[in-house]
Write a structure and sequence with these properties.
Elements (H helix, E strand, L loop, with lengths): L15 H5 L2 H23 L1 E4 L2 E6 L5 H27 L6 H34 L10 H17 L1
Antiparallel strand pairs: 1-2
Helix pairs in contact: 2-3, 2-5, 3-4, 4-5
Protein name: SNG2 protein
Main location: membrane
Family: Belongs to the synaptogyrin family.
Length: 158
């Protein structure tokens, strides 16, 4: 085969078309887009206020932890996607099999952890949204549903 973790192919020329067609690169791009959508929905419309009270509160049943959790895992997932995308770009240039092994294991471990965290986030946001009173949320309802939906999709993309 290709040696340990593809080490026999190390040092080859970079081919952008071939790189983008790799399944892990496509999954990483999709995961980054999903994380960006969750983060943007919660930052943009995740907090609202009542006409009589200008104080902002989270649209997920007023639970600040729900908004913070969604924003936190969204931002960290997006940054991790960028990091691992850069690792994917430079991976063919790494000839040391030990370094390759640690990078592959780090990617695998992080992906497993983030799959679990997206599942927890989906369950948490869905639970809090089910307890939200419809009369309290006017503008952020669609963004809240989008955050829930894309956190569910993120479970599978990671």
């Amino acid at each position: 085969g290709g040696g340990a973790y593809g080490a026999a192919k190390a040092g080859g020329a970079f081919d952008l078309v071939r790189f983008v067609q790799q399944p892990q690169v496509v999954a990483r791009i999709v995961s980054a887009v999903f994380a960006l959508i969750v983060f943007a929905c919660l930052v943009g419309d995740g907090y609202t206020s009542l006409p009589e009270d200008p104080k902002l509160f989270c649209v997920f049943n007023g639970n600040e932890d729900a908004c913070r959790y969604g924003i936190g895992i969204g931002v960290l997932a997006f940054l991790a996607c960028i990091f691992f995308f850069m690792v994917d770009v430079y991976f063919p240039q790494i000839s040391n099999t030990t370094d390759r092994k640690y990078l592959v294991l780090a990617d695998l471990g992080f992906s497993g952890l983030w799959t679990f965290l997206w599942f927890v986030g989906f369950c948490f946001l869905t639970n809090q949204w089910s307890w939200t009173q419809p009369g309290l949320v006017y503008i952020g309802a669609d963004s809240a549903r989008a955050a829930i939906t894309f956190s569910f999709f993120s479970i599978f993309s990671w």
